[in-house]
Structures are given as C-alpha cells and as structure tokens.
Amino acid sequence: MLICIPNVLTKEQVAFCRNKLNQAEWIDGKATTGTQPATVKSNVQIPQSSPVAHELGNVILDALANKPQFISAALPLKIFPPLFNRYENGGHFGIHTDGSVMTVPGTSVRVRTDVSATLFLAEPEAYEGGELVIEDNFGAQEVKLAAGDMVLYPATSLHQVRPVTSGARLASFFWMQSMVRDDGQRTLLYDLDQSIQELSLELGAGHPQTVKLAGIYHNLVRRWADT
Ligand code: NI
Asked: Is CATH 2.60.120.620 the classification given to domain 3-178?
C-alpha cells in the first residue's frame, strides 16, 4: 500500500527545516548505507548524530503524532529517527530495497523496517527529476510531492530516486516497525478504519453498525498486532 499524507508539516515548518538544513554539515550518503545499496547511491546526508537531525526529526515526529491518517496507515510500534538527504547535480539512488533491520545509532534498539517514509522538503518546481519510483503490485508508481507532504510505502518494495538534473531535492526519510508487519493486513485495517470514519460521520459514532464495525477493527488489530 502506498499512501500520500498531505500537510504533515506546515509551510512555516518546512521553511524552518530548510533554513536549518542549509546551515548544516552534509556528508556523503554512502556513509549510512549497507554495501549493496551504496553502489547505486549518489547523494549527501546530514550525519545521524547531528543535533540538527535530532531537532528536525522531533519536529517531524511531533507532527506525525497528531496525524490520525498516519497512525491508521502505519500502526507504528518503533520509528527510526528521521534522516535528511539532498540530491543535486545528477544525484540519484538506483533501484534497491532498504535494509530489513536498522539499529538506532548509539543504542541497542533495533527497528524492523516494515514501512518506509519520505517527507518532501523542497517544492516540486524547485528541481527537475528526483521522482521517487516505487514498484508495487500495480507496477511502478512515481511520487513527487509538495513540500511538507509525505509518502508511506512498504519497505519490502523495490524503489529508486531518479537523477536530479537541476535544482536540489531535499527530503527526510525514515522507517518504522509496524505493530502489523504484513502489508496486506495493514492495508485491510487502513481501508476498514477509513470506512468506519466515514460511516461515523454519516450515521454517527454511536450507530449500532458503526459500533459493531469498530469492534471488528479492534478485534483484527488484537489478532494481528505485536506490541
Ligand atoms: Ni531506499
């Protein structure tokens, strides 16, 4: 399941992040990748230990905590601290799958990567190319969103970032371990939850059928969730 979540950050928050990132130290993106993807990766990143990454990561995580659509889609158990990258001058990331388990730097916390996220921090008009191309069941999906918008996609999928031929593509990217590891089960729960939300508006949250469906939703989560 591929889901775009609009306005995770306001335009003011995006400007704040861009300003901080413009003043930050950047390093070769290969430093934070395993050996296989490093051969196809050409970009720069903010070091994981940098105070800027920590500060801006918290801005993003705080914003996500208030987004019911994000909670419903990802059912997050653990979130890897957000990272930041920039592609320019032909920078790209060839087709790859993200590593399956990531250790949070400086800790013994391991995050199984069930869901990948990219939060766009540059407006699409500001650069040429740079599309995130995700292979899913229906073929390749191209994603290039407004600054402040985010896409969630299964970490199991093959994906790539097309070369940025002019301008600069700034983004945050990170992974989540979901309470529900299977993408098919997460998709069913998301679709069911969205229908319940709409029925609640039409019939009322107290309508017997809405109450029954909400019960079914929670009983499915109880069956499938690890906590
Ligand atoms: Ni990737």
From this structure: yes
